[in-house]
């Protein structure tokens, strides 16, 4: 098993549109299926309620690491932290990075999640598998969001 997940997608939308979809908390929530309490702030914790069917009991938490306009947005979080009542705070988080590059008529978006080697062995493989599948779906979600929604 690898320590990292990497997904790439070519989006038929300008970098400015993809950037807004990633960093405006309302837009991020729309495609990511989470109702966030407020804007992303570097160094701050973003908190919200998952809206994806079957996961509505999960509170989404991430700490924003970097916001480099139209280039890089990153946060740390506890991967696949969905068990009701479980305390994941003692676990090291993984790092999620969204990198944007102009490409062709649109934007090349690269998602990387790294740090799985630090996740406790008892849940490492499941967290990796679930997030690998989840990121594949989320890349399709953001594609639909930026290519099919208005307001580019």
From TrEMBL:
Limits of the Activator of Hsp90 ATPase homologue 1/2-like C-terminal domain: 12-147
Matches recorded under Pfam families: AHSA1 (PF08327)
Family affiliation: Belongs to the AHA1 family.
Protein name: SRPBCC family protein
Organism placement in taxonomy: Bacteria, Pseudomonadati, Pseudomonadota, Gammaproteobacteria, Lysobacterales
């Amino acid at each position: 098993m690898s320590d990292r997940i990497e997904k790439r997608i070519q989006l038929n939308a300008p970098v400015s549109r993809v950037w807004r979809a990633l960093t405006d908390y309302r837009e991020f929530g729309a495609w990511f299926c989470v109702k966030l309490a407020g804007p992303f702030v570097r160094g701050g914790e973003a908190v919200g309620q998952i809206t994806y069917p079957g996961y509505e009991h999960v509170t989404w938490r991430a700490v924003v690491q970097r916001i480099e306009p139209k280039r890089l947005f990153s946060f740390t979080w506890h991967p696949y932290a969905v068990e009701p009542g479980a305390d994941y705070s003692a676990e090291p988080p993984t790092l999620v990075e969204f990198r944007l590059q102009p490409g062709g008529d649109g934007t090349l978006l690269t998602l990387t999640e790294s740090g799985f080697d630090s996740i406790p062995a008892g849940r490492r493989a499941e967290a990796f598998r679930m997030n690998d599948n989840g990121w594949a779906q989320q890349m399709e979600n953001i594609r639909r969001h930026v290519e099919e929604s208005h307001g580019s």
